Amino acid sequence: MNFMMIAVAVLGVIGLVAALVLYVCSKKFAVYEDPRISQVAALLPGANCGGCGFAGCSALAEALVKGADAGSLDGISCPVGGQEVMGKVADLLGMAIANGDPMVAVVRCGGTCELRQKVVSYDGLRSCAAMNACGAGETGCGFGCLGCGDCVSACQFDAIHMNPETGLPEVDEDRCTACGACAKACPRHVIELRKKGVKGRRVYVECVNKDKGAVAMKACKAACIGCGKCAKECPFGAITVENNVSYIDYTKCRLCRKCMAVCPTHAIKAVNFPAPKPKAEVQTEATPSAVKPAAQPKASTTTKQEEEQA
Amino acid sequence: MKIRTFSIGGIHPEENKLSNDAATQVAALPVQAIFPLSQHIGAPAKPVVAKGDKVKVGTMIAEAGGFVSAPIYSSVSGTVLKIDTAVDATGYRKPAIIINVDGDEWEKSIDRSNKLETVEEHPELTPEEIVNRIKVAGVTGMGGAGFPTFIKLCPPPTAKAECVIINAVECEPYITADYRLMLEKSDEILVGLELLMKAAKVTRGYIGIETNKPQAIELLADKCAKKFGGSAYEVEVVPLKQRYPQGGEKQLVDAVINRQVPAPPAIPVNVGAIVQNVGTAFAVYEAVMKHKPLFERYTTVTGKKLRQPGNYLVRMGTPMKDLIAVCGGMPEEDSKVLAGGPMMGKALTSTDVPVCKGTNSVTILSGEDAVRKEPQPCIRCAKCVSACPMGLEPYLLAKLSAVSNWERCESEDIVSCIECGSCQFTCPAHRPLLDNIRLGKQTVMGIIRSRQAKK
User: What is the pLDDT of residue A277?
Assistant: First the structure.
């Protein structure tokens, strides 16, 4: 009986002392964490992909809360969650967000196996980074896609795949979250994040070759030769030619596609536009040599009208 | 005499010194010479000529683009066609000066006589003057890497040079250019060594030669005894056991003077040694004594399937296809053309690539030799570990690099790798070890650089 009493008393005292110590410590050494950080983190997708430029979702949440305190959320956003998630975050933080356009990864190389012939063979490690480090790759182009699929392994959303026929990667627009992991993995900087565009329509130069025209042409039939015709043709001043390669500024491009018609190597690509009307196709058959210049302007006018209606 | 070698690792690939007995011939002048502006480690040279300018043999066409850089001289006389891009040994198009050749008119300042000049005859040659002439002549390491020679002769204040080691090892299979040079220009090489020793203010010199070149060892030992016997200089010819990569600076220092160079950023001069290639010694002689800038070099053109492997005195800027044509043209089989030897050489994507300051060989591998075997799973035999001359664990580094574990790569000393390829050569499973390690090394070096930049 006596033993039991002593045991209970001793344990009770120890418990009380420990509780007191813990209480004092928790008050004295308390680390204050803004409760909003965990709330924001709960809204984020939790993929920890790093696409936002921060080390995972909780780091982004912290940056967002800090941004909200500083008065602006500009430049901090989750590319994966997109508008929807950012809207919720902004509501929570009592902020308004600028309506960022949804982006998508775009492969800026059109050098298919057919258009860009192999000149040498490479039998080292199948990795773009390794191939890039030891030379121009298997084709004569020192700028284009190497075709080993470093971008495919970098994608956490299964949104980019190699097309065995063309030897080039293709982006699955619906899955692409524009996290930019593929663009970072590409040693040649062939992949770019561009505005997704209305109904997914966008126009871009499908080449990054900085060699002079004749050299680029020799390596690849689809190369931009930097002739500058597109820049002259563009009514919106969206196209610049620098280092022998043309670039379409997506913030200025109005999708008229006049540039496509004049490009001698068909290096400018438009996606998700409706097929040209049958009338244009008849023309195509009649004068094959004038295919693109004749067919394209018609198509562009139709889209313009459609856009105006929309 | 005990035959020395380096202490850890190493391999012995088949030698295939096919052109050992082929006396050096003077290669024909090219029709058009191409001078890439980046022929050395460091900043690219800056062009000082313009389109249409007339140049002579030995005219400076590009000046040093920074401290770690070297000027480039024309090896031909003619007219500058353009300053454009041209494919170089890296496989990429890089800025280059292209000259249309017309005749062979030399700059008057170059002494073209065969008279052997000696240091005693030129009291005006102070150490500073020698270093300056080497710098002006654009001499860079002739063994392949191409580090500007004058920098090696001015060690950082923390280090003190004690000896000059001439690298006449030529451990790389197939290549014989240095061997031929030693047989044909031994007196000039020894004067070059004397100049290097004087410039570095040391009195000890070594010439490391592998025992597969007995004639060169005998000849140089004999001439050394005659030349340096009784003088203030102590020069020794050191016969070395055949083992690759003995020609690596750190391995050579280990083999010759038994000192170990610590991990990067330490360099051989930190343990008192200045290592110079035998070709560099010859270039130094010509630059200092004959006022001849570096614009031609000894190059081996070789390959088992090549009709006539040989050694040539080539003007830089000569496209490799010209040399291959002289040797009987490309073999009919699928071949791999390397700038350099089979171990360290760089596979070329085009034979239009010109011979540069560091091109010691054009090696053509054909048929089976030209393709890699299919990689198999690692069987944990650890042959790569025993072969690594830097004492690293190649299988581990390759694996860590493949899974992008850069922190571990760094802690496992990936930056010490000299990329000699011994691990890959010895791997029975044909794994692409060096490809992975090289990738990891580049990434880790980038991380280290950005970390230092932040500080």
Answer: 66
- State both tokens at A262: 């004049």
Do A203 and A308 fall within a single domain?
yes
Residues of B in contact with A142 (CB under 8 A): 91-93
Q: How far is CA A23 from CA A19, A136, B273, in A?
A: 6, 66, 66
Cα distance between residue A78 and residue A269, in whole Å? 28
Is residue B431 within 8 Å of B49, Cβ to Cβ?
no
Q: How many CB pairs under 8 A join A and B?
A: 49
- The total number of structural domains in chain A stands at 3
Block means of pLDDT (10 residues each) for chain A, 310 residues, are 89 96 92 86 85 85 86 76 81 72 88 89 89 86 92 90 92 87 92 88 92 90 92 91 92 90 91 72 42 41 41
In a domain, A14, yes or no: no
ω before B47 within 30° of 0 (cis)? Answer: no
Tell me if B439 and A129 make a contact (CB, 8 A cut-off): yes
The whole-angstrom separation of Cα B89 and Cα B73 is 19
Q: pTM for the full model?
A: 0.82
Contact status of B424 with chain A (Cβ, < 8 Å):
no
Token readout for A38 is: 């965990």
Q: Could you give phi then psi for residue B311, rounded to 5 degrees? A: -115, 135
Pairwise CB contact (< 8 Å): B432 & A125: yes
- Does the domain at B119-289 match CATH 3.40.50.11540? Answer given as yes
Write out chain A residues lying below 8 Å of B91, CB-based. 134-137, 142
Cβ atoms of A220 and A209 within 8 Å: the answer is: yes
The CA-atom distances, in angstroms, between A282 and each of A263, A286, B132 are 22, 6, 75
The Cα angle at residue A51 between residues A50 and A55, in degrees rounded to 5: 20
Q: Output the six-digit token pair for B316.
A: 């830089």
Quote the CA–CA distance of A256 and A201 in Å, as a whole number. Answer: 11
Residue positions counted in chain B: 455
DSSP 8-state code for residue B274 = E
Are residue A275 and residue A223 in the same domain, yes or no?
yes
